[in-house]
Structure formats: structure tokens, C-alpha cells
Amino acid sequence: MSEQEQLAQILENCELWIFDPDTAKVFANAIERLFYSDSFRIGKAVLPRTNVRSRLWDLDGIILQSVQSKLAANQRDVKNSTAYTMAVIFNTICETHSDLLVDPYLNSLGGPPAPPAGR
What we know:
The protein is built from 6 helices and 2 strands, in the order ααββαααα.
């Protein structure tokens, strides 16, 4: 699949039609920049393009709704709104996976059996 086809599919997976047109444009722009970036810095880590692109395949409308909520809740001055949006999108993808791992209710349902008493 060509790069353009991959990006088109990722954007399709994002269900951008559920957002107002301006929000959809902001998200599409940030996702396109993430997709075409040679690397992406998160904290002190510099992630290569392949890692960033592999995470973008996890994006969907639910994750972007969470991004939208986080952006709306921001209380800080943001100097580069596109870079900030890119970081929130990428971090929200990663947090979605880690949130599932640390969810107490889900862990109580599927965790390993407790060791026998006295051990």
C-alpha cells in the first residue's frame, strides 16, 4: 500500500465525520504531520517514523473524542497548537493501551489466579 493510501486509511479509521468540520481539519492536519514526520519526540524519547506510523493505525473516533476532551480541558498557554495537538493525539493512543492494563475492574476479571493461602 502506498504512503498516500496508508494515510487515507488511517484518516478513514479516525471517523473524522463525527467531529465538526474545523475540529476534523485540525485532527487531520496533526495526524498527517505525525504520519510524515521522520521522527517524533515525546519527553526525552525520539521515536522513529515506523513506530509513530504503527501507533497511528490504532486511532479511531473514540480515541479522538478523548483527545478533543483533553484539548478542551487544557489550562496552559500553548505556543504551537499543532505540535501540542500532535503530542496529545500520540499520548492518548499510548494511554488508551496502558489504561486498559491498569484498570482494576478489568484486572479483577482476567488476572491470574491468586496463590493458595499460606504461600
